[in-house]
Amino acid sequence: MHRNQLPLILALLWAMTSPVHAAPINSNTAFAPHQGESILRLQYRYLKAEDDPSDQDRALHVRGVTGVYIYGFTPRFTGILAVPYLDKTLGLTNEDNRRITRDSSGVGDIRTLLKYRVFTRDQPGKTHRLGLFGGMEWPTGNDNATDRFGRLPQGLQAGSGSYDPIIGAVWTTQTLQWELDADVGYKFNTEANNFAFGDVLFYNLSYQRRLWPRSLPEEGVPAFWYGVLELNGTYADNNSIAGREDRNSGGHTMFLSPGVQWVNPRWVLEAAVQIPIVQDLNGSALEVDYAATMGLRFRF
Question: Smaller CB count within 10 Å for the chain: N or C?
């Protein structure tokens, strides 16, 4: 073995065998933990949406912390549990032209997913993976909260009250310097409380590249800085109320999401901002100003 090949081989082995690596911040990856290993991910997210900024009749702020537990049942079969805690605040002007605030907080709807890797192709300095995933979003959040004005609007509730199946597929290509992830999925939103959110088609494309160190050392595998650039998109159908479509809901939104990651063999620290570049929304649906994400994940 040539001495100059050693850093490349060590880095490739680390990338192939460690479940903690550069990965998407706001989307999915086909990589998974080893059999019997776990990944815990804690992520804070803030989102601001409002009407025309010059009007600001309605302004929505959503803060959430989500804990995600990932377990490797087999080298190909992975289980995922996501538990969100949400704090939502809506400011608006009422019929008397007075500014009021309505808010809710609490545990949201829990997600359980199963992911199965159906394809693997390893090449010198490169690997390709394809996974299929499916699961359910369960009605664990409070979907009947009230305040002094009455029952909160459904979109302001912590939970939906409905059982919502999810299916999708994810592709990953990883080399020694970069990783590319692409996923697409569909969420079937069912009815509860005489209300149904529109079904959602989601898609993501993520590119991660090692920024530092630019060249690998001859001994050991250090921590890494990665730059991340994502496209995150959703297309949502109209909500329905008592079987009638709400034409002021749904539409297509796409974010450009630059971020950065500090990657160690056991943990990853990450942050990203999401900037809307497409908002083709229906009627008077609120437009997103921006969103931001910070997270920490580690394996054990």
Answer: N
Instruction: Tell me which residue has tokens 């109320």.
Output: 241
Residue type, 18: S
- From CA 256, how far away is CA 77, in angstroms rounded? 31
Residue 211 CA to residue 67 CA, distance in Å, equals 28
List the CATH number of the domain containing 85: 2.40.160.40
Q: What is the mean pLDDT of the chain?
A: 91
Q: How far is C-alpha 75 from the chain's CA centre?
A: 23
The dihedrals phi and psi of 17, each to the nearest 5 degrees, come to -105, -20
Q: Closest Cα partner for 142 from 187, 69, 86?
A: 86
Determine the Cα–Cα distance for residues 115 and 150; give it in Å rounded to an integer: 41
**Residues 53-83 pLDDT 10s:** 555 589 999 999 999 999 999 999 999 999 9
Sole residue written with tokens 């808010």 = 103
Tell me the DSSP string of 83-110.
Answer: EEEEEEEEEEE-TTS-EEEEEEEEE---
Question: Distances from the Cα of 248 to the Cαs of 64, 66, 144, 236, 285, in angstroms?
Answer: 25, 28, 22, 12, 5
CA 7, 28, 85, 279 torsion-angle sign: positive
**pTM of the entire predicted model:** 0.90
Q: What is the pLDDT of residues 199-255, one digit of tens each?
A: 999 999 999 999 998 877 766 667 899 999 999 999 999 999 999 999 999 999 999
Q: How many domains does the chain have?
A: 1
Tell me: cis bond preceding 213? Omega within 30 of 0 counts. yes
Residues 283 and 248 sit within 8 Å (Cβ to Cβ): yes
Instruction: Count the residues in the chain.
Output: 300
Distance CA 176, CA 224 (A): 12
**Contact indicator for 191, 162 with CB cutoff of 8 Å:** yes
Q: Are 148 and 199 in contact (CB under 8 A)?
A: no
Q: Residue 188 is encoded by which pair of tokens?
A: 């079937």
